[in-house]
Design a protein that fits this description.
The chain is α+β, with helices and mostly antiparallel strands and 120 residues long. It has 4 helices and 4 strands. Strands 3-2-1-4 form a 4-stranded mixed sheet.
Amino acid sequence: MKNRRVDMRLARQKRVRKKVVGTPERPRLSVFRSARHIYAQLIDDTTGRTLAAASTLTPAIKGDLTGLKKSEAARAVGRAVAEQAKSRGYEAVVFDRNGFLYHGRVKSLSEGAREAGLKF
């Protein structure tokens, strides 16, 4: 038996991905949320390359996350991926919530990226 929740998320993901496309000038900020961790990456869909990435497992920020709630950790990941993007010359991105609802950790990550200076 298939998992209906996962199937519904994948359907939302396909629906959104039709409209949201990352370009070299404005890459796609894709978010993946698991039960324990959150991952974000900037993707140029024309070449299929990942331009920058950060997650709660990234060694550079993993130590700073001890004792934080998951939504606070997501905000830190958003800041980290935004700093990487800005250092590589990207100011504006297209946000791809990857089929997840825009609240909780996904919203915190996007707010952290905006705080660090990315424009959506």
